[in-house]
Amino acid sequence: MKSFFQLMNTSFRNSDLDAELVIIPYIINNEVKFNEMLMSVNGNQLFSQKATMEKAGIKDVDKMQEEIKKEIPVPPKPTDLQ
């Protein structure tokens, strides 16, 4: 970097520049991207549904799972159709 600045700006050529490298890690701060990441992890079965919900910040995971069971209709068994 120092060489680049000295090359681009002639006033820096004879000066001793003090430069420091700063690395900023990638952090997901977008809720949609974070949830997509959790869903992709859960879809690959790396984490259980319960663990994924906990990572997503759901406080009462057991209550949420009960609500999901109530919302999704259970398909009839083949023996129930006869």
UniProtKB/TrEMBL annotation:
It comes from the Bacteria. This is Uncharacterized protein. It comes from Chryseobacterium phosphatilyticum.
